[in-house]
Structure formats: C-alpha cells, structure tokens
Design brief:
Elements (H helix, E strand, L loop, with lengths): L2 E5 L4 H10 L4 E5 L6 H6 L2 E4 L13 E4 L5 H4 L9 E4 L5 H16 L2 H9 L16 E5 L3 H11 L4 E6 L10 E4 L3 H4 L5 E4 L13 H5 L4 E5 L11 H6 L3 E6 L19 E3 L9 H16 L15
Parallel strand pairs: 1-2, 1-3, 3-4, 4-5, 6-7, 6-9, 7-8, 9-10, 10-11, 11-12
Helix pairs in contact: 1-10, 4-6
C-alpha cells in the first residue's frame, strides 16, 4: 500500500512531513470539496478529518483520521467491510484542559465584567473573584481528553468526577460513574465538561430532559457538538438550568450566522480551537500506523467503526 490521498485545506505541510520520512510513498493532496470519484479509485489510503460527499469510498482500503475523533469520517454511512480505520496518536488532553481551565478562570475572575467596566472607566468592586479550589467538576468522557481536563482542574484543587459508558475507574479522576446516573451525579456540580466522542450512544446525550437536571451548572463542550441538543440550549440558559456555556464545537461547523448561540449573553463561542493538531504528531501517528500495517499487524491506533473509538 503506497498511494495515499491527504485531504484538507492546509495539508501541504503534512504531505511534506510524511514524504520526508517515506519518500517511497505516492502522496496527493486535495481539498475536501474538490475530491472526485477518480481520486478515490486511485487512492489505497485516505488521510483526513472528514469524508467526501460521494456515494462510496472507491478503492480505499485504509482511512486515517488526523483528528481526535472519527465521526466526521463514518457518521451516517457505514464503512465498507474490511476497511481499516485508524486515528492520530496525538494527545489533545493537555491543550483542551488548558482551554477548559481558562474558561473557568475567566468566569470566576469576572473578566468579561471587568473588561466592560474598564471600557466605561468604571471602578466596580461589586464582584469579587471566586477560587476554583474546592469546586466540583464533572467530565463526560474518561479517555485521553477527559483525563487531560481532569489533571488540569485537579492541579488547581478541584474535585473531579468522571462519567463514562461503563463507569469503570480511571486515572486522574477522584471517582467515575456510569453515564446512566447523570441526573444524580450532576447535582451540586459547578462545572460540566463534555469530552466524549460522538457515537450512537452519545449523540444528543445532553438533551432537554438532562439539561433540566443540571441545576445551574456551567457547561463546557470541547468534545463534539452533536453530544448536545443545541436547539435546547437557549431555553436551558434562559431558565437557569445552565448558568453559562463555553462552546468550542457545534453540530454544524462553522456555526451558522442564524444560530442564537452567537449573541446569547451567557455563551462564549470559540471556533473549534481547544485542541489544535500539531504537524509533527499528526505525521507521527500516521507513520506509526503505516509501520504496523506493513508488518501485517493491527495498528495500536485502530478504531472500531461500530463503536466510534
């Protein structure tokens, strides 16, 4: 296997990094919108973050995700039998942990209100900062991203609880519960972080019914947009089920101009930047998988397409 199609808007650097390590490979780059059926008939491997809008995968035998999740490659249409699915080796947990802590500190330190007061030349001492130490954080997802977020909050003295499908214990969490106990565990929580992959089980996990159970928690989503029922968010914020939300991922990206989330006073929007990929790690993950494939082994980074992780 040596013919690979690398797909994205800014993948020239990735192509060069892979070519430097493996000059024997035949590499082509394409934007997602420009892919045509002949491209997929030529390619044996596909490297990218989203699937093309075509009926089938042609001759592709291996699909490698350059992002943390694979939902953009498999959602809605199952892969053909026998196609290998792998993903990057990069650990996005530390970066996403910093993103979450930054949002929490901004809220606790009243940075938005202070910035407005400064613009208006107003000496406002009505709000005092709140310390993160001792506050409670609930993280949906105990994989590498969830653990990175947990470490960041625990370093500041927070009590961190995890929530996963099985509820099995995981490193970096004080306790872990099964997701079915959400309504019980979210009570008295200060911060709710969504760090789960998008699967059939997590799609719209945070629906209107669960939002009603949140009791004024502050929500952060750095996992996948569709884990939330976005249509229910404005009501949840207006009713006080959530006291605020920092959102980095959305069901449709870029976030449409028509979305009420852009202008809601309790929402902070960022453009899917909480866990940026690095060129070196992206190339390294693909090359590690390639070495395993060439040795007839199943790559350590292989993903079960039926489970999505």
């Amino acid at each position: 296997m040596n013919r690979f199609l690398i797909v994205g808007d800014h993948v020239a650097g990735l192509r060069d990094a892979i070519a430097a390590a493996r000059p024997d490979l035949d590499l082509r780059t394409k934007s997602l919108a420009s892919i045509a059926p002949p491209d997929l008939q030529w390619a044996q491997g596909y490297i990218g973050f989203r699937r093309p809008a075509l009926a089938d995968w042609g001759a592709v035998q291996w699909i490698h995700s350059i992002g943390a999740g694979v939902d953009g490659l498999i959602a809605g249409r199952p892969l053909p039998p026998g196609v290998l699915l792998t993903k990057t080796s990069e650990d996005f947990g530390p970066a996403i942990g910093e993103w979450c802590v930054t949002r929490a500190l901004a809220v606790n330190q009243n940075l938005a209100a202070l910035a407005e007061a400064q613009r208006n030349k107003r000496w406002d001492r009505d709000r005092e900062p709140t310390m993160l130490r001792g506050q409670r954080v609930l993280i949906l997802g105990t994989g590498s991203v969830g653990r990175g977020v947990a470490r960041a909050f625990r370093a500041l003295g927070c009590v961190v609880t995890g929530m996963s499908r099985s509820g099995s214990g995981a490193a970096d969490f004080d306790r872990v519960f099964p997701a079915e106990r959400f309504g019980e565990v979210v009570k008295d929580t200060d911060w709710l972080v969504l760090a789960a992959p998008l699967t059939a089980a997590t799609r719209h996990f945070l629906d209107r019914a669960r939002l009603q159970q949140c009791g004024g928690v502050y929500l952060m989503n750095a996992g996948r947009g569709a884990v939330i029922d976005e249509a229910a968010l404005p009501e949840a914020l207006d009713q006080g089920w959530l006291r605020g939300a920092a959102l980095d991922v959305f069901a449709t990206e870029p976030l449409p101009d028509s979305s009420p989330l852009w202008s809601h006073p309790k929402v902070t929007v960022s453009p899917h930047i909480s866990g940026p990929s690095t060129l070196a790690a992206t190339a390294e993950g693909f090359l590690a998988c390639l070495a395993a494939v060439e040795h007839g082994e199943r790559p350590r980074l292989a993903v079960d397409p039926n489970r999505g992780y």
